[in-house]
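Hi team,

As requested, here is the filled-out complex form for the magnesium ion run. I kept the field names the same as last time so the parser does not choke. Let me know if anything looks off before we queue the next batch.

— J.
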Amino acid sequence: MTYIFAHRGSSKDCPENTMAAFKKAYQDGADGIELDVQLSKDGIPVIIHDEKLDRTTNKKGNVNTYTVDELMKVDAGSWFSKKFSSEHVPTLEMFLDWIAPLPMLLNIELKNNVIEYNMIEEKILQLLHQYGMKKRTVISSFNHYSLVKLRKLDPYIETAPLYSSGLFEPWEYVRAVCSKSAHPNYRSLHPYIMEGFKQNNIPIRPYTVNSKKWMKYFFEWEIEAIITDYPVIAKKLLQEGPPDQKGRFLQKWW
Ligand code: G3P
Ligand code: MG
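And here is what came back:
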């Protein structure tokens, strides 16, 4: 059965990467949560997608020019709807404290491909250890040097390269960056590539799978997980019936 990861929480119903979005994902029946992590000025892992506060909060400027105390006071919800004005930028620790007792999986995306945050890998591993979350967490990043570093620090942590275009034989690349799974852009997953991942026993969790057609395509291939903004739709579709013939949906438009 394919796991459903809520992308930045249930981000179509709540402001992305806030505790409201994460709690909604749990209520929606998502199996896991994907979230994005950067470091504050004082080096604390905080959950926010952009390097800047401008798009999703009432403040401006780089995340790493604000202390964690300041970030926990910014309004990270009103841009989405006034009713979320009490949402702030959560710390990763606050989030882990909430998720640890719940039966959920976790995908932490390190947003260190634009700004190389000092020691972010060590800090994330320490927090996952502290909350007993290592075995149900996969760490992904577009910065693949960071993934190799993570595996050197902890040979048991699961890592997955994020990538957005058509790599040649990506299952070989996944091994080259010391990972065991991959997080490709869903559009790169031609049946030939799907077959290669399958033959090489590399689990995949494509992003961001929002249409029913693509959801069905991936369910038919019985992949490990999809990352979606619509966990309710994905769960319902999964429960509706047995997988159809492989590739039937993709053949219509490829
Ligand atoms: O981790 C999957 C996906 O979130 C990667 O892209 O920009 O949505 O963080 P982005
Ligand atoms: Mg992300």
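Two things worth flagging: The longest strand covers residues 32-39. Residues 34, 36, 109 surround magnesium ion (ligand 2) (CB under 6 Å).

Thanks,
J.
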